[in-house]
């Protein structure tokens, strides 16, 4: 399977790219608005993996070309770029099995981070409304510590909640998530539930900011 991470040069894109390259045999493609930056980051990830004894080839392309090559396309871009990114690659998504979004709308003031969904209700709903007809959308990987994911020598032992209206697509992403060692994926229902899932992220960030030793805080349901 080929996984394309649009915005794969950012924190969560880097973390997921490294983990999937380290723990699985899936082909990893890095996308960016700047193809030179995508190629440079892909080489950087290869070097990091090689330092841990893992030899992988990772390719970098402009977002549209990366989307066209992906079986799974992850929108690892900031929430304010989500709509524009989906619209810019829409004509490249014909053969994509699933479009995945980990983005969360937030703002920050003196008291901390606060959930700020778009008018449609959530970022996942925004992606579903913007994506071409017939492309399943799944929300996943919210609230994970990008730093912890990117440190390949650390155990994760966290849960990610998955939402989607296409059961086959949701199951595909559940399995893909659990190929990352230590990550457990739990079904949180349909896209109508995505606001509740996304709103946990600012809570986790606030906990990390206010409590010593919780920099990489995450969720584990027992």
> Residue ranges: pLDDT <50 for 5 or more in a row?
none
The helix fraction, in percent, is 25-40%
Shape: globular
Write down how many β-strands occur, each being a DSSP E stretch of 2 or more residues: 10
* SSE string: EHEHEHEHEEEHEHEHEHH
Oligomer: single chain
Structural class: alpha/beta
Give the rounded overall mean pLDDT: 96
- Order of strands, widest sheet: 3-2-1-4-5-8-9-10
Number of helix segments? 9
Notes on the structure:
This protein has nine helices and ten strands. By secondary structure, the protein is an alpha/beta fold. It has one domain (2-210): NAD(P)-binding Rossmann-like Domain (Rossmann fold). Strands 3-2-1-4-5-8-9-10 form an eight-stranded mixed β-sheet, with helices on both faces. A two-stranded antiparallel sheet has the order 6-7. Helix 4 packs parallel to helix 5. The model has no long low-confidence stretch (mean pLDDT 96).
Keywords for this entry:
single chain; 222 residues; alpha/beta; Rossmann fold; 8-stranded mixed β-sheet; two-stranded antiparallel ribbon; 21% strand; globular
What order do the helices and strands come in, and which of them pair?
Layout: E1 2-6, H1 11-23, E2 27-32, H2 35-51, E3 59-62, H3 63-69, E4 72-75, H4 82-89, E5 98-101, E6 106-109, E7 112-115, H5 123-130, E8 137-139, H6 146-150, E9 158-164, H7 167-178, E10 183-187, H8 194-198, H9 200-210
Parallel strand pairs: 1-2, 1-4, 2-3, 4-5, 5-8, 9-10
Antiparallel strand pairs: 6-7, 8-9
Helix pairs in contact: 4-5
